[in-house]
């Protein structure tokens, strides 16, 4: 949710699109978590503007508005300035497949 329309576009891609081993049919036993690499891309940036990329690992802690005022809800906050020649910011991070990673980016 983004009640005040503060958020920029954030795209998250993984280096794999499967789990190994896969969960069995009708099984209630989860597969062993595996390492995955996320590529997080923020787009729609403007020259000279300051931004913050927030990461959350609990969907109940993601605010619906005033993201900067709720900075402590995030497990990570990266401040950055748009660099000349690029309208995107990109970062990679490794997590386990059983972890949550929820991202929001806003102009400061």
Secondary structure: elements and pairs:
Layout: E1 9-14, E2 35-43, E3 50-56, E4 76-81, E5 88-96, E6 102-107
Give structural notes.
The chain has one domain (9-17, 31-107): Immunoglobulin-like, CATH 2.60.40. The chain is 0% helix and 40% strand. The chain contains no helices and 6 strands.
Number of helices: 0
CATH topology: Immunoglobulin-like
Number of domains: 1
Q: Can you give the mean pLDDT?
A: 92
Briefly characterize the structure.
With 108 residues, this protein is an all-beta fold.
Q: Keywords for this structure?
A:
108 residues, 3-stranded antiparallel beta sheet, mainly beta, Immunoglobulin-like, 0% helix, globular, single chain
């Amino acid at each position: 949710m983004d009640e005040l329309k503060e958020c920029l576009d954030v795209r998250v891609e993984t280096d794999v699109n499967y789990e190994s081993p896969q969960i069995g049919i009708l099984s209630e036993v989860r597969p062993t978590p595996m390492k995955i690499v996320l590529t997080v891309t923020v787009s729609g940036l403007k020259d000279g503007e300051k931004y913050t990329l927030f990461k959350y690992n609990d969907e109940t802690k993601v605010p619906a508005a005033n993201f900067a005022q709720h900075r402590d809800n995030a497990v990570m906050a990266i401040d950055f300035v748009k660099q000349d020649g690029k309208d995107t910011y990109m970062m990679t991070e490794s997590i386990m497949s059983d972890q949550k990673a929820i991202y929001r980016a806003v102009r400061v």
